[in-house]
Amino acid sequence: MKHLKMVNLFGQYQKIKSEIDTAIQEVIHSSAFINGPQVKSFRANLASYLGVKHVIPCANGTDALQIALMTLDLKPGDEVITPDFTFIATVEVVALLGLKPVLVDVDPDYFTLDTAQLKKSISSRTKAIIPVHLYGLCANMTEILEIAGNSNIPVIEDTAQALGADYHDASVAGKAGTLGTIGTTSFFPSKNLGCFGDGGAMITNNDTLAEKMSCIANHGAKVKYYHDEVGVNSRLDTLQAAILDVKLRYLDSFAQARRKAADYYTTSLAGIPGIKTPALPSYSNHVFHQYTLQVDGKRDELKEFLAKESIPTMIYYPVPMHSQKAFHIGGNFPVSDKLCKTVLSLPMDTEIKEKEQDFICERIKQFYN
């Protein structure tokens, strides 16, 4: 089968082409390329969708994390707890700000922050916790918020891969990114809500934090040319906001299509020795930014075999944060180490067809036969 992709962005565009093209043309005709009315519209519409008071758009998901941390007025050497198994941005911003990353291992089934390990890692210097909602699944926010609340520690949700996911526990409920002190997200093109370039946002119900994040993202200025503090230049441009505003209308249907594809994979791959399909907890639904298998023993051989059949796969992630040369942290993280040797993500998007999934699954079964 030809032209299989990890994410079929063009196919998604074709379905809503007229709306996207009209939105882009409206921005071009107005020439309000920075802070145009579409930015304000998208900000309001995303806040309404999430059921949150404030959305502060910015240039990308990494900036969102950095600005969120800057808003908390942390001091050099303060500790910030993050999962060991994540994309580098989560830990990178901590180090960039002169803070101390404290890594915690993850749950072997859900790949998110292990709350038992989190509890053991809290110290008097812990000033923030950043749970990552990985692959489209929420971390166990009920326990995370309880642990954080006991020590009055702010929680920054990294929601780059799970925007639109619903958390539904008896005591904690809401959209991913709205449960902690601040939520952050990315609109990188391949995300569930992705633009045609870079983009990101911060999410909060706290008026004071919202005002400060807006200020920091705008060179530390509330009024032009009057700078209250050292900030950054981090904006979501109008073209990207216009595109996102269109795609936001379809976010729930996008998630439904991804869940349908995930269910098809799970049913088709059931019973293959050595392969573990994604587990689903009771407290969160899954928006399947990635469909990730755990492959015991022959992960790299399977990846190579599928590549020869023109089936793309990805390893998210091949190296845990404690082993990255950039940080020199070290430590004992057996689950993260194992996942880096076993995870394999299959093609997943809103446009994938069952015949394409049949081809992928048949080749996986062929490998094991």
How would you portray this structure in words?
The chain is built from 13 helices and 14 strands. The mean pLDDT is 97. A hairpin with a 4-residue loop joins strand 6 and strand 7. The strands form 5 sheets. A 4-stranded mixed β-sheet has the order 1-9-8-5. Strands 3-2-4 form a 3-stranded parallel β-sheet, with helices on both faces. The protein has a 3-stranded antiparallel β-sheet with strand order 12-13-14. Helix content is 39%, strand content 15%. 46% of the residues are buried. Helix 2 packs antiparallel against helix 9 and helix 10 packs parallel to helix 13. It folds into 2 domains: 240 residues, 3-Layer(aba) Sandwich (Aspartate Aminotransferase, domain 2), CATH 3.40.640.10; 118 residues, Alpha-Beta Complex (Aspartate Aminotransferase, domain 1), CATH 3.90.1150. It is globular. The protein has 369 residues and is α/β, with parallel strands linked by helices.
Give the arrangement of secondary structure elements.
Layout: H1 9-15, H2 17-30, H3 37-50, E1 54-58, H4 61-71, E2 79-83, H5 89-96, E3 100-104, H6 115-121, E4 126-129, H7 141-150, E5 156-158, E6 166-168, E7 173-175, E8 182-186, E9 200-204, H8 207-217, E10 221-223, E11 226-227, H9 238-248, H10 251-268, E12 275-276, E13 291-295, H11 299-308, H12 334-342, E14 343-346, H13 354-368
Helix pairs in contact: 2-9, 3-9, 4-5, 4-8, 10-13
